[in-house]
Every structure is written in C-alpha cells, then in structure tokens.
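Re: weekly structure request thread

Next one in the queue (442 aa):
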Amino acid sequence: MFCCLRAVRRLCLEKILLQCILQSRTLSGADAINALRPFYFAVHPDFFGQHPKEREVNENSLKRLNGYLENLQKPGFRSFKPTQLTFYVREREPNSSNVQESFSASGFRAVSFTLHTRDLLSTVLDILNSCSLSTEHIQSLNVNSQTHKEAKSAVNRPIKWDKTYYSFTGFKDPEEELEQAQRVETTLISWLDDNEASAVKKLKKSLPLRKELERLKFELSHQLELSDIRWQRSWGIAHRCSQLHSLGRLVQQRPEVLKNVKGRTVVFTDRSGMSAAGHIMLGTMDVHHHWTKIFERLPNYYKLQKRLLFLEDRISQLLGGIQVIYIEELQPLLTLEEYYETLDSFYNKLSDSRLPFHPRSLRGLQMILESDRYAPSLHEFGHFTIPTVCDPATLQWFIFAKAQEARENLKRKEEGIVEQSANACGSRVHPLSVMGYSRTIY
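Done, posted below.
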C-alpha cells in the first residue's frame, strides 16, 4: 500500500514539474507567428498558384493548424485531440528526418505529421523539425520567464534572419539591398560619364544595321501584304535582320506556301504556330522546314479560329451576353490550340452548372480567361479576369456584385481614351499605353 502511495506521489511531482518547465518556456502568440515565418513561406498557398492540388492541401492544413494554435492560446482549454496534417513544402532538398514524406509529381515534398502538444513552444518546434526547417532563430525570441515589459519589447524587436532564410524563401536580404542601393547611388553618375562616349560610338555604328532592319521589314511586309512584323523578345538588331533574311529566302524558294498570309501579323518568338490573337508565330530556333509546315497549315488554323470565335459566343450567351476577349498585352502568349482548350473546358463547366443569367443582362461588359489564377477579379479598366477553375456559383456572385462597378470603370476608360487620343495620335505613344497597358510583343 505504501509503495502505491509513493508511486502516485512521484507521478504527481513529475507532472507538476513538467508543467512548471513548460510554463517557463511558453511562447506568446506573436512570438509563435514570428517563429513560424520560415514555415509559412515554405507552404503558403500563394506560392502554389500553378499547382491546384498542392495549393488546396496546404490551404486546408493551414486552416486546421491555425485552429489548433488558437485553441492552445485559450485559457483553461484542455480538450486536445491529436491533429494529423499534411503540407507540400517548396524545398527540394532531400530530408533525413523520420517524418513521413514523399514527393508530388510537381516536385514538392509532401510532409505529414501529427500534433499532440499542449503548448505553443513545443508545437512550433514540432512543426519546424517535421519540415526540416531551422529552429535556431527561436532562441532569440523572448519567453514568459522575463517580465511583461521585456516580453513586449521582444515582440516588437525585428528578427534578423540567417542568410540561408533568404536563399530558401527567395526573398531579398534587406541589408544586401541597402548596400547595393548605396553603391548605385554613389557610382551611377560616374558610370554614365565613363560610358557616354562608348554608348554614342556604338549607336552610330549600329545606325546602318538599323536602317537595314527597317528596309527588310518594309519590303517583306509589302511583298506579303502583312499587317505587321513583330518580335516577342528584345533580340539584337543583327539577330532580327538574320530572321528577316531567313524569311526572305523562304519567300524566294517557296512562294506558294505564303499565299494565305495576307493581312496577318508575323511574330518571331520561341515556338511556331498561331497565337490566340491570330498572329503567325515563327520560332527563331526552327528551320525553314518547320516554318513551311506552319504556312501550309494556315487554312486549318483559320478554321480553328472560327470555331474558337463560335465558342466565345456560346460562353457569352451562357453568361448573359458578357463578351469574352483576349488581350495579348495582359495575358500570356498562348497558341490557338491552347486557348481553344481553355475555352472548351470553361464552356463545359458552365454548361453543366446552368447558371441563371438573364439573356443580354451583361451586354457591354468584357471578361478574359486565365489559367494561373484562383479567384476572380475586376481590372481597373472594366474587364473581369476569370480563372478557368473558378467555381460557377462564385463566378455568378462575383459578376453580379461587380457589374455596376465594371460599367463605371469601362466608361472612365473610354472617356480617358477620347480625351487623350489627340495627344496619342500626334505622338509616338501607342494607343494601348493610354489605357495603361504595356506591350509585351513589339
């Protein structure tokens, strides 16, 4: 009997001692957030924009984690259930820990762990250790063993991260940025003075080549009756001349394959095909054989373009007459096939949902589709930016809620264009710059 009493007494003393140790090392809520910053940078859903599966998993796990942390901070809360969480971590380095993990198809590391701790400090350490993240910075945080005033000052004190933190998260080191800015401020004027003569000399030397480029562009545009010739990237003048010479040789060798280019725009880019805007794309790394195939396929591209326009009209009918547009200055460069697949997928989703839009209730409004977004938005110039994965019910609510604001933005844009069109026509300012767009193809 006395042995049992001694055992019970020893267990009670150990429990009391453990509680005292944990209380002396408890983190505040603000300290916990600061300590978990490397973890948040590694798993935050905003960094998984092009990976919807990983983004959804991290969003759900973060919600559960935040609920767990909030319960830990509630006074008198004792009912804790073990919580199993799974996160996709952006770090690609191999992990030697015993945490259950695997790699997704996109290359992110999947980490699973179970939380069963009853204080913030132990929970934070478990999370960081499970994801193979450093815990050294936690030592610099003040804990409740100090006075309240000291703890408050510790919360407001900025954390000085290790250099590896910036290399991991991709954020810039403010100290390095400050040093670099100071160097630029002190050396920029002297650098310009030192290189002024060289810049003028190179400009004069390039003038004949620039005139040759303009001549080649004018002759090919006139010969093929093209609307324009553009380049996607800022290649050098010599490189552009070489591309125009290649196109000129193809015109001489196979003039019959270029009979369908009248009125079109040719864009020299990274791949060949037809863009979503209807421009003929010529890949700068392709040979004449590939270019010839593109020109031979133009009739098929034109048929696909008609089907695409028909699909845009069908989507417009399902959405109350809102016009589906493609703005090449604001959207990524897509091929005609890629854009058609995007429209087709979006149309099928709308057809299945059967949203109750009144016919022609949204006429005059515009929208663009984007595959790398997850929430609809309204551009300052009045068009809606709609993600292809947007939930139909969310899409309906957002359009109804923002329709009036969209009309007002479109009206302001039109008034601004009318007001500034005279100045834009009298100068070399592109009309889209008046609207606030910056050209990515020129």
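The CA atoms of residues 66 and 72 lie 10 Å apart. DSSP finds 14 helices and eleven strands in the chain.
Next request, please.
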